[in-house]
UniProtKB/TrEMBL annotation:
Keyword GTP-binding: no
Pfam families (alphabetical): Acetyltransf_1
Matches recorded under PROSITE patterns: GNAT (PS51186)
Residue intervals of the N-acetyltransferase domain: 2-160
Keywords from the UniProt entry: Acyltransferase, Transferase
Stated name of the protein: GNAT family N-acetyltransferase
Keyword Hydrolase among record annotations: no
Origin species: Fictibacillus terranigra
Matching InterPro entries: Acyl_CoA_acyltransferase, GNAT_dom, YpeA/RimI_acetyltransf
Length: 305
């Protein structure tokens, strides 16, 4: 029998120890330090006082991290990580924690619940489905560590773009607000954006981040969002232009990747596959509507299996 308490009852070191143990022998190992946990809390709007920990007597054995944001007029909560230490998995701890979170969501007046789960983790997906969540999108981490060909992402059109920060694209009429939490502009600190123009018309945008190592060499390029204007007659060409500008084939080999990228964005996914990108991790994007504001839409559409 476990008891449920709030996450902020733990010290930062206790929280890190539980987080790392909770993801041990998981589908992908996740390891944090105190500094990286603090950064994660800030970047992803995670709330320790509105997150939960499961205890067996005095021993913390599992946790659910919750983040809160207003997205398109709806108060949304995101499950930013559910972890259970190995010897307590499969014993109903997850269900107890999610049930406790439902009470928190009600207290906070949340309209929409969101989470991602690794596609192979069928046990977790079934648990979330039993709690009222459903899959509405499929996500992929594409990656390529090799050099790209000189003609990679070839395009024919002549476009201009405005370089900026992630929040600069949030008011574009076709900006995708309901992307995975970590790919929303609010989460991408130190990131970049590009707004693509054809004449005076905005025809595309992207949000990405480039990292440089201690010696000043390009270490990685991560793409979070990349969208062409819906219905644009040269949408595929606009996508190619953005991918070429972001991934910079002439710079040689580095870790080029996407983060939780929607597989329903077929133009980008097909372009990446053509240039040798492979899928490293696949996830499902799940949601549960708690209450729907009168006269509004959730902005969520299920993808075809």
């Amino acid at each position: 029998m476990v008891s449920i308490k709030r996450f902020d009852t733990l010290s930062f070191q206790e929280a890190v120890d539980l987080f790392n143990e909770g993801f041990k022998h998981y589908f992908t190992d996740i390891t944090l330090t105190v500094d990286s946990l603090i950064k994660k809390l800030a970047n992803e709007d995670l709330s320790p006082e509105k997150s939960v920990v499961a205890f067996d007597q005095e021993k913390p054995v599992g946790f659910v991290m919750n983040g809160f944001r207003t997205v398109e007029g709806q108060k949304a909560s995101w499950n930013g990580g559910t972890g259970i230490i190995p010897e307590y998995r499969g014993k109903g701890v997850g269900k107890e924690m999610i049930s406790a979170c439902m009470g928190i969501y009600e207290e906070e007046g949340v309209d929409l619940l969101l989470l991602e789960a690794i596609s192979e983790n069928t046990r977790a997906i079934k648990l979330y489905e039993s709690m009222g969540y459903s899959v509405f999108d499929k996500l992929a981490f594409f990656v390529n560590h090799e050099s790209l060909s000189e003609r990679a992402f070839y395009h024919e059109g002549d476009y201009d773009y405005i370089h900026g920060i992630p929040q600069d694209v949030k008011d574009i009429e076709f900006y995708q607000h309901m992307t995975p939490w970590q790919t929303q502009y609010q989460s991408i600190k130190d990131g970049e954006s590009m707004t693509v123009k054809s004449g005076r018309e905005t025809v595309g945008y992207a949000v990405f981040k480039r990292t440089i190592n201690a010696s000043g060499k390009r270490e990685g390029i991560a793409l979070y969002q990349c969208e062409a204007k819906p219905g644009h007659d040269k949408a595929a060409d606009v996508i190619q232009f953005m991918l070429r500008e972001i991934y910079r084939p002439a710079e040689g080999a580095c870790r080029r990747m996407t983060v939780n990228f929607s597989k329903s964005n077929t133009l980008v996914c097909e372009s990446l596959s053509k240039e040798g990108f492979t899928v490293m991790i696949e996830q499902v994007h799940m949601s549960k509507t708690v209450r729907k504001p009168s006269g509004s839409e959730t902005g969520i559409k299920a993808v075809q299996s």
